[in-house]
Amino acid sequence: MSKRGVNIEDVEFHLLLEAIFQVYDHDFRGYALASLKRRATQALAKFECATFSALQDRVLREPETMRRLLPLFTIGVSDLFRDPDYFRKIREDVVPHLQTYPSLKVWVAGCSTGEELYSLVILFREAGLERRTVFYATDINNEALAIAEAGAYAMDRVAGFTQNHQRSGGTCSLSDYYTAQYDRALFQRTLRDRVVFSKHSLVSDAVFAEMNLVSCRNVLIYFERSLQDRAIGLFRDSLMPGGFLGLGSRESLRFSTHDDAFSEFSREQRLFRRVAA
Amino acid sequence: MRDKRSDTPIGLYAAVTVSLIAVFWADVSTPLGFAVWVFYIVPVILTVFLARPSAPVIAGVVVSAALIVGYYVSSPGVQPLTAQMNRVIAIITVFVVAFIVLQTIRSRLAVERQDWLQTGHARLTGKLSGEQREEELAESILGFIGAYVESMGGAIFLDFATSWKRAAVYGCDQPDSIPEYIQAGQGLLGQAAQENRIIVVDPVPDGYLTIGSALGSTKPRGLVIAPFAIDGVTKGVVELGFFGAVDDRVTEFLARISDPVAVAIRSAQYRAKVQNLLEETQRQAGELQAQSEELRVSNEEIEEQSRALKDSHTRLEQQQAELEQTNAQLESQADALETQKNNLLLSQSTLEAQKRELERASGYKSQFLANMSHELRTPLNSSLILAKLLADNRQGNLTAEQVKYARTILSAGSDLLNLINDVLDLSKVEAGRLELRIADVSVKNLLRDLQVTFEPLAKEKQLALRISADSAAPVILRTDGQRLEQVLRNLLSNAVKFTERGEVELTVRVPSADTVAFTVRDTGIGIAEDAQEAVFQPFRQAGQRTGPDHAGTGLGLSISRELARVLGGQILLETELGRGSSFTLVLPVAGPELGRAHAQIAPIDANGHAPIRDLKITEPAETAPLVRIAHGPDTRVLLVIEDDKSFATVIADLAREIGFEVLIAGTGQEGLTLAAQQSPHCIVLDLGLPDVTGLSVLDRLKKSPATRHIPVHVVSGSDYMEIAYPLGAAGYALKPVKREQLVKALSELERQSARRNRRVLLVEDNAIQLESLCRLFEAPEVTTVPVRSAAECLEKLKAETFDCMVLDLNLPDSSGFSLLETLSQEPAYSFPPVIVYTGRDLSGAEDEKLRRYAKSVILKGAKSPERLLDEVSLFLHQVVATMPAEKQAMLQRARSRDASLEGKRVLIVEDDVRNIFALTSVLEAHGVVPSVARNGREALAMLEATRTEARQFPDLVLMDIMMPEMDGLTATREIRKQPAWKKLPIIVLTAKATRNDQAESLQAGASDYIAKPLDVDKLLSLMRVWMPR
């Protein structure tokens, strides 16, 4: 006899997350439940499990299942120069500030398959800042990182990329940066020269270097409030005074406890500036 | 292809031949007329089993020949004509049969062929079924066709955009030499495809591809190229090679299957397309879902926000209601206050009127007294004189009794005169109209007078009278002698009056450096405790006893007390009932003016009464021990360098009232030390110091870079103003210093220190740039000092202090780098926080070098003035706050030299400047010698260098993980590859907290790991563990 008001599916789901954490050290317990649960429900169909408990059984005993499940939980949709106005804003208003520094560090947190990273590298290259910048691209999913490092995307997406790039104020053609092979577009290896790819979890890991720009877009919406707070705390500690934080178009700092550490640089584009301590 | 024809067993041929020969032999051996030739049909019929259509015809011809031969060879039997006719008929029959057989064979062959084609078609259809992908399909098609038509090798190309893509190959020796793509119309293949016709190449010229197997290879004999087309569109082309000639049923077969194969290919292509579209759709569905999720999330957030808004709205409404209530309350209170105010005004005016009345009354009184004094005294004087004359009895004409009457009159008159004088005095003192005549009074003379006066009185009462002065007592006293005498007289007369036996003693002592005490002690009746206060009241006496022994008006003590106050001192009483009393008049040595500031004197209370104290005149309290004041950024510290303890205390109290924290130094040296250590906000310096002159102290204060900015107010007993100001004094005051002067000086100092001007040194050689920089920092409390070369800059830093410095790297006489190095090494130059502002592009190494000295580096650009201003403001306002912390850090550093880590060499591999700085400061504080590599590659290079250059090998490596060029784990693995470095302790600094990641570090070869954020203690203990002595 279950207690009244207890949803069995919710309990199962929580147990699943707990199991994943205990065995694989991937901590999804702080993620936004609603969206995570929806994704997991889709995964049920894909793995032909009837319930979360069945899925948990498979996950616990078959690492291969976990490996295939991970992208379903984490990979989001992204494009090069997604939300072109954001990149335009960076190009026009943030870059002049960054130009006063002799050396720069940029952190793309939750880089997924790398579209965001390459957008920034290309933007910096066009602004002449690439040589003095070190880019850190981190994600919890090794496969996504591998894809990002490979830098190849399906050919049919490139038209969209090109449009976005132009709308963001790109100075040359996007085709200068890739070569087409069969049905894939492979981005130049030189774009990766200044990039450090690394596995890093916003849930459990700590600050590793001091940044001028942190870009973490459409990652925080998948987190619960307390985890969002932790992540923003990491960004706060990473950024030097006057450093910039860029969030996704539907994200904000308004409800975090670190609101006072940032001033609004651009409201529409969700760019914030770290105020001096 | 197997030759079907050769499939026919030899047996059949043999049978036909044998039967032919047999019949021939039979025919020959029998005479004519025996219709053995009928049996010639047999071989012809037998040829039906053969596969050659020509066989029966040949057989027919042979049989005909045999018939003819047989006719001639057989022995005669029947009529030759008959035999001839028979043979002819036989020949005709044989040919007919042969013809029939021929048709049979032909139709059978045709059927077989059709059968073959159809079987092939059917089987092919079977192979084409199922949902195969293009490649699989091509493979199975080629495989089947190749096998079915017995080709030895071939390739199949499928339609791919505008060209043909090789889909399957078999039997070929070198499959790679078969082109992968063939353009439309290119070569025979292209042509066949384009024209949709089968092309046969037979024989194959040299140079064509060889067909091979494991045991050998050869070139094909014949080639067939056949397209597969449907609805006029060619979907694929196959090329087949044959060892033998190309059979046309192959071409027919290929033509037949062209349609179904093309259909199958087309279907496969369609399927593939559909699959792609499906995947595309799924992907887009995924995108949509993600977007809708994001929307949902933001929706939820908006809901929360609106809820929060609603909450705050309700709260606001509540607050508004409360505010209204409070408003109402306030209004009523304001009304009440208004009323009160009016009342107060009313009473105030009443009071004023009363005061004016009183003044007028007291004015009348004073006037009256002043007038009356003369009026009172004159007749009294006359009476006294006359009484005296009578009492003298010069002429001797009075009786003893009359003389006694006269003496009584005299005495009474004197008393009355005294009383009048006292009353007048008291009223004068109360009215504040008592004038003091200050002069140098000889104490000795005074005492002598008193002795003379009271000796007889004492002797009369048989009391011992002792009047003496301490050896330390001053010879000259600066005061109003007459009044002093008056008080002493009063005290002495009281003492004598109230003492029946014993003694009266007057002693003069010096209880403290600037006071003198006159003590009148008697062994009289004493005063009861409850009466002690009362005796000072006018017209009161202890016990209210009147009588001849205690005659007197009772005004004496109150007048004495007032007089003492006016003289700048007070009267203290110590008494015990039955034992005697001791009255002490304490006066300041220097005179009444400074009295209040100087001596340990209790303040007079509102009624004008000094509280009665114990007579123990103690030494004034020791000046507070010189403590280190831990002051926050807001407290202002005043340093008083003054050897006169009481004056110092006075200033200290005054300063504390205003809000300063006070430090006191008794000697010049102490003062200098304190000034350097505590960095007070202002200094009050006395010029008369015991160990060195105040002027030299002032000089040294102004010369030292640490203290030259502190304003100094000089206080002195002599006038050195002309020297003190040029030396740098902020103010000067001559002793004796009035309280108001001190207050003013301290307030001025306080105001100065609060508004202390910030000084910024600008080092830039370009005049226009310099000008714009000066204008950038223009502000009321900021002073900018521009210089245009390194030499000028050094000069300025030697002579003055600055709060902040902006430095360009390209200077005419020296580079910014060497300038910074000089500043950091030579202590003679003050080294303010430096902000480098340069147009030069800096390399990574230069950047790192600069970071060691400069607080921040700004490259000139569009937004750089903004940034420059921000950073400079940061420093100007932080200066006060950071100093104590830095000092604390300095102290800590000095204390934490750790024996076990002292002198160890540690290699830090880390690319983040902030982390490097933090680590090196911690390590250096513990005596460790750090070296830095910016990434794994540099670290390896540095370790290599220790091998070749015999430089010191590190004792331990701190390795960060996330670095460009070569990350920490890779570097660790590389290090461990070298046998010489296998034992080198490597501690990994990881930002990752999961167990797997940390296990990964250990697997890569690290000795240990520590997670960020770094716990310094933990790091140090780890280091101690891995670097034992």
Give a verbal description of the structure:
The complex is a heterodimer of chains A (277) and B (1029). Chain A is α/β, with parallel strands linked by helices and 277 residues long. Chain A is built from 9 helices and 10 strands. In chain A, the strands form 2 sheets. A 7-stranded mixed beta sheet of chain A has the order 6-2-1-7-8-10-9. A 3-stranded antiparallel beta sheet of chain A has the order 3-5-4. In chain A, helix 1 runs parallel beside helix 3, helix 2 packs across helix 4 and helix 3 crosses helix 4. The mean pLDDT of chain A is 89. Chain B is rod-shaped, with a radius of gyration of 67 Å. Chain B has 1029 residues and is of the alpha/beta class. In chain B, the strands form 7 sheets. Chain B has a 6-stranded antiparallel beta sheet with strand order 3-2-1-8-7-4. A 5-stranded mixed beta sheet of chain B has the order 10-12-13-15-14. In chain B, strand 18, helix 16 and strand 19 form a beta-alpha-beta unit. Chain B has 28 helices and 30 strands. Helix content of chain B is 53%, strand content 17%. The chains are: A alpha/beta (277), B alpha/beta (1029). At the A-B interface, helix 2 and strand 6 of A face helix 8, helix 22, strand 25, helix 23 and helix 24 of B.
Can you tag this structure with a few keywords?
heterodimer, A: 277 residues, alpha/beta, seven-stranded mixed beta sheet, three-stranded antiparallel beta sheet, 9 helices, B: 1029 residues, six-stranded antiparallel beta sheet, rod-shaped
